[in-house]
Amino acid sequence: MTVEKSPLYGGEANRRITIRDLRTAKERGERWPMLTAYDMYTAEIFDQAGIPVLLVGDSAGNNVYAHTDTIPVTIEEMMPLARAVVRSAKRALVVCDLPFGSYQIGSEQALATSIQVMKETGVQAVKLEGGLPAVDSVHRIVEAGIPVMAHVGFTPQSVNAIGGYRVQGRGAQGEDLLTAALALEKAGAFSIVLEMVAADVAAEITKRLSIPVIGIGAGPDCDAQVLVWQDMAGMRSGAMPRFVKAYGDLRAGLTSAAKAFAEDVTTGQFPGEEHTYR
Ligand SMILES: Nc1nc(=O)c2c([nH]1)NC[C@@H]1CN(c3ccc(C(=O)N[C@@H](CCC(=O)O)C(=O)O)cc3)CN21
Ligand SMILES: CC(C)C(=O)C(=O)O
Ligand SMILES: [Mg+2]
Predict the structure, then answer these.
(1) Are residues 131 and 255 in the same domain?
(2) 259 is annotated as contributing to ligand binding
(3) Domain of 150?
(4) Same domain, yes or no, for 112 and 190?
(5) SUPFAM superfamilies attached here (predicted)?
(6) Alpha-carbon radius of gyration of the chain
(7) C-alpha 183 to ligand 1 mean position (Å)
C-alpha cells in the first residue's frame, strides 16, 4: 500500500488532519495509529513522527495523576493537558476524553461539557464512553457541530460495574456490541474505539461500520490501533495487559540517565568546567 498521497501521511503536509481524512483512509483501506498524549514533548514527538490522531485520554488518571484508575479524573484536570497537546501538535487531530461524571447525568450535561472543552482547549473532537445509553448524548453533541469519538467494549469508567478488566463481546454479547456500534454511527459519531473486544466481533463491527473503528485489545482487523503512550514506549512499570506491545524501553533509559546524573553529582564529576560560569 502506497500512502504518500494519503492526507494522513503525505498530501498537503502543512495542515491538520480532519475527520474527513480518517473516513477517506477507511475507504482506501489505510490503517493508522493513534496514541495518547498528555503533555508538550510527547505531543510534539508523536506529531512529528506522523501519528495522525492524538488522544488526551482520561487514562491520565493512572498515567499522569497517579490514581489507580480513570474514575477520579475531572474536567479541570483534563483541560490543561489538552491545551498543552493542542499547542504542541501541528498536524495531528487532537481528541479529548470526557472524564467520568462530566457527561453521564444526561445529554444536556454532555453537550455543556463538550462545548466547554471545545471552547477552552482547542481540540478538534471529544470522546465519551458508552453504548446505547450514550446515543442520545452523541446525537446532541454532533448536532451542535462537535465531532464525537465513541468508545464501547471495555469502558474503564465503568470498571466497577463490569467487575474488572474483562474482555467484552464474547458469545451472545457480540450482537449487542454491534447493535450499539451501529446506533452510535447513526447518531453521528465520526469514529469508535473498541476496547478489549473479541477479535472476530471487532472484525465484524469494522466491516459493518462506515466510520473508522479504532481497536485497543480488539484484534488485527480494526481500521486503526490505539495504545497508551507509556505502554507503547516501555515507560510504565509492572504487568502489562495482554494487548500491549512495548516498542521502546524508556523506563530503562530514564533510569540509567537519572543514576548517571546522581553518580556524577555525588562524586563531584558534575558540573564540569564547561558547565561553569567564571
Ligand atoms: N497505561 C494504561 N494503559 C491502558 O491501556 C489503559 C490505561 N492505562 N488506563 C485506562 C484504561 C484501563 N485499561 C486496562 C487496564 C488494565 C487491564 C488489565 O489488567 N488487563 C489484563 C487482564 C486482567 C483481567 O483479566 O482481569 C490483561 O492481561 O489484559 C486492561 C485494560 C486500558 N486503559
Ligand atoms: C485507551 C484509550 C482509548 C482511552 O480511552 C484513554 O487513554 O483514556
Ligand atoms: Mg479514556
Answers:
(1) no
(2) no
(3) 19-247
(4) yes
(5) Phosphoenolpyruvate/pyruvate domain
(6) 20
(7) 26
- Lookup: cell for 163: 467487575
Q: Report the alpha-carbon distance of residue 58 to residue 35 in Å, rounded.
A: 13
- Measured from the CA of 195, which atom of ligand 1 is nearest? 32
Residue 6 lies in a domain: no
User: For residue 65, what are the contacts with CB-CB under 8 A and spacing of at least 6?
Assistant: 72, 73, 77
- Nearest alpha carbon, ligand 2 atom 7: 57
* 12 assigned ligand-binding residue: no
pTM above 0.95, yes or no: yes
pLDDT digits (tens, 9 = 90+) for 92-129: 999 999 999 999 999 999 999 999 999 999 999 999 99
Do 132 and 264 fall into the same domain? no
Domain tally, the chain: 2
Interval 135-182: pLDDT, tens: 999 999 999 999 999 999 999 999 999 999 999 999 999 999 999 999
Q: Are residues 67 and 110 in the same domain?
A: yes
Ligand 1 centroid from CA 232, angstroms: 13
Ligand 2 center to 262 CA (angstroms):
35
* Residue 58 marked ligand-binding: yes
Convert 157-169 to b/e letters by CB count within 10 Å (16 or more is b): bebeeeeeeebbb
- Asked if the structure places residue 10 within a domain, the reply is no
ipTM exceeding 0.90, yes/no: yes
Query: Is 12 among the domain residues?
Result: no
Q: Report the distance separating Cα 114 and Cα 78, nearest Å.
A: 12
Q: In CATH, what number is assigned to the domain containing residue 140?
A: 3.20.20.60
